[in-house]
Specification:
elongated; 327 residues; single chain; 3-stranded antiparallel beta sheet; disordered N terminus
């Protein structure tokens, strides 16, 4: 046993505690990242499911138009050109359905992999839904919420551990007083250590002087100071990274909201355009080309709208992560 006159052991204990706490924050950071990854995979699956639904609806509409044009052609009203145009749109829609069917399967596999088990059907999405703002995100959110980020807390604990180690390295320059203990029994064998016999503890103080190890002790002290400077730099980097990530996410969030509103307005406008074009075609006022252009534009706008909504929801998941999570 050693008498801790100058706090060397106490400093080492403090260092060990801070390193443990840093490890615990790293665990929490990994957990937060996993939660965000699962949420992102769930949203990706939801977006693919919605795109698949849109593709199936488009395919049904294209098939209905194709049958109408074929009936008109057979009656001597429509043309082979219009029938060919309608057929090409049907095949394009069928290809889109097949593509998104495969994307849904891949997304489900990715979600199962992250969850570590097959996700029950009742928990799988059938469309893209809105994600609630993390931490009730609103104007005036104080920057000190970033102090809860696991990476910042881990860097802070590492900095404290480095400071504690400096104290231990400095205390090692001074002599240490140890207590030696001797324990005698009636048997010299190790397996008889705790058998019956005489047991007498003898304590004798022993001074361990660092006189002939001053070179290594000085080197250890210098190394501990360098480690502290590294810990300070890592702590500063963690804080700078936190502010950069939050700033980027909030900036992107503003533009995504504007983009979503514009894209949804475009979808509504094109849906009306498609409806009017179809009505004029059925009334015999226009050819099928106008319907074809309108349907294709609407389909592309709907897919783009899903992509923008996915980006917006994924941005909220990223904000959850960069703000330190909710664990």
């Amino acid at each position: 046993w050693e008498l801790d006159l100058l706090g060397r052991i106490r400093s080492l204990n403090a260092r060990a505690l801070e390193q443990y706490l840093a490890t615990e924050e790293a665990r929490r950071g990994a957990q937060t990242s996993l939660v965000a990854a699962v949420a992102a995979a769930w949203l990706d699956l939801a977006a693919n499911e919605e795109n698949l639904r849109i593709s199936k609806e488009t395919l049904a509409a294209q098939q209905a138009s194709y049958e109408l044009i074929r009936s008109s052609r057979d009656a001597g009203i429509g043309s082979d050109l219009e029938l060919s145009q309608a057929g090409s749109q049907v095949e394009a829609a069928r290809a889109a359905v097949a593509s998104f069917t495969g994307a849904v399967g891949v997304s489900r596999h990715a979600l199962d992999l992250l969850a570590g088990t097959p996700v029950p059907g009742g928990l799988l999405p059938d469309r893209l839904v809105e994600v609630a703002d993390p931490r009730g995100l609103s104007a005036g959110l104080p920057s000190d919420v970033l102090l809860r980020r696991p990476d910042i807390l881990a860097a802070e604990h590492q900095l404290r551990a480095a400071n504690a180690y400096i104290g231990a390295a400095r205390a090692a320059f001074f002599p240490r007083i140890s207590l030696t203990a001797g324990f005698g029994t009636s048997s010299p064998d190790l397996d008889g250590l705790f058998k019956s016999g005489t047991g007498v503890w003898s304590f004798a103080p022993q001074i361990v002087s660092p006189l002939f190890a001053s070179g290594s002790l000085l080197a250890n002290l210098k190394v501990s100071k360098v480690d502290r400077e590294i810990a300070v730099a890592q702590y500063e980097k963690a804080i700078q990274s936190a502010f950069t990530e939050v700033n980027d996410s909030l900036t992107l969030r503003t533009t995504l909201v504007t983009q979503r509103d514009a894209q949804e307005a475009l979808v509504k406008s094109l849906a009306e355009f498609s409806r009017l074009s179809d009505a004029r075609f059925k009334a015999g006022l226009d050819g099928y080309l106008g319907v074809l252009v309108a349907q294709q534009a609407l389909f592309n706008a709907q897919r783009s709208a899903v992509g923008v909504r996915l980006a917006e929801q994924a941005n909220l998941v990223l904000l959850y992560k960069v703000l330190g999570g909710g664990v």
